[in-house]
Write a structure and sequence with these properties.
single chain, 328 residues, Carbonic Anhydrase II, 12-stranded mixed β-sheet, 23% helix, 24% strand, binds zinc ion
């Protein structure tokens, strides 16, 4: 506890100093261009095609040097004042979700056109195309892809966005080192004994029984917005790094944003994912542990805590001085 406190105050001191340097700092990351390949023949569990084999099976990118997911070490994330708030357009639309599909590897939800993100330190506006999920085996066997300080969460939601100039052509977007922007949200079991919560997550999970087999899909009725599903997350607090698709062919074309706050979902709803959908037909295995192992670390940035803590420190000093003056 003491060690933690002294580390914290040490961090604050270096943070105040860093404030002066922040405006001078510029980060330049050189990344390779990538080419697209259509991919089959990979899996999560069979030893002949699971993630340890991907670098051999798909050497072009899965063996690359900016692969995702990663373990994020929060204390190593450096401050970047360019990581401003996002603008989320039509994330409040009740008719944002159009179709839900069992791909055999995940559950994917297609999004209507006109849903976009910008800001957030991204180089361009991006169109939100789809979201999908990664999970383990029930709430007791976590299955997020990213981990933070080695903690793996129950599930992870990925919203996939493509640079608006590509007009939804992801084959083109993956040839650009920042062509895609992925938003990662951790899902954590809600505390207490609540069931069927949040209501919109319960409603979304009710579609799973209609897409049990790989290839099944069904329309999603209006009534669920992205804002509904992201409830409880402060979207101004996130980690940023340059990485890849987490499935073959692992193209290194993704600007990753991993949000710090978690979405809280009741255990029964989390458990539905690993107990309802299957990887192929009725006789196949349930879809469980659908996440890639963490890859070698990358440099991660985050918001500067300095502006706030520096300001607070300034106020503290000012109030001490004024207090002292009053005492005289
Ligand atoms: Zn994903």
């Amino acid at each position: 506890m003491t060690a933690v406190r002294s580390l914290h105050s040490e961090k604050k001191r270096s943070c105040v100093k860093m404030n002066w340097l922040l405006s001078l700092a510029a980060v330049c990351v050189l990344v390779p261009s990538v080419h697209c390949a259509s991919v089959t023949g990979w899996c999560y569990h069979n030893t002949s095609c699971s993630d340890t084999k991907w670098p051999t099976l798909f050497p072009s990118y899965c063996a690359g040097s900016r692969q995702s997911p990663i373990n994020i070490v929060s204390a190593s994330a450096t401050a970047d004042s360019n990581l401003t708030a996002f603008t989320f357009t039509n994330y409040n639309s009740d008719s944002a979700l159009t179709k839900i599909e069992n791909t055999g590897k995940t559950v994917k939800i297609a999004l209507a056109s006109g849903i976009t993100i910008s800001g957030g330190g991204l180089p361009d506006p991006y169109d939100s195309l789809q979201f999908h999920l990664h999970w383990g085996n029930g709430s007791s066997v976590p299955g997020s892809e990213h981990t933070v300080n080695s903690k793996r969460y129950a599930m992870e939601l990925h919203i996939v966005n493509s640079k608006a100039t590509y007009n939804g052509d992801t084959a083109l977007a993956v040839t650009d080192s920042t062509g895609l922007a992925a938003l990662g949200f951790f899902i954590e079991e809600m505390s207490g004994d609540a069931t069927g919560q949040p209501a919109k997550w319960n409603l979304l999970s009710s579609y799973l029984s209609k897409i049990v087999n790989s290839g099944n899909s069904t329309a999603v009725a209006s009534g669920i917005s992205l804002d509904d599903l992201l409830e409880g997350v402060d979207r101004t607090k996130y980690y940023r790094y340059l990485g890849s698709l987490t499935t073959p062919s692992c193209n290194e074309a993704v600007v990753w944003t991993v949000f710090k706050d978690t979405i809280k979902v009741s255990k029964d709803v989390i458990d539905k994912f690993s107990t309802t959908v299957r990887i192929a037909d009725d006789s196949s295995e349930l879809m469980v542990n659908v996440f890639r192992s963490v890859q070698p670390t990358q440099s991660v940035t985050t918001q500067s805590s300095c502006s706030t803590s520096g300001y607070s420190l300034g106020l503290l000093v000012l109030s001490l001085v004024l207090g002292g003056v009053r005492d005289i």
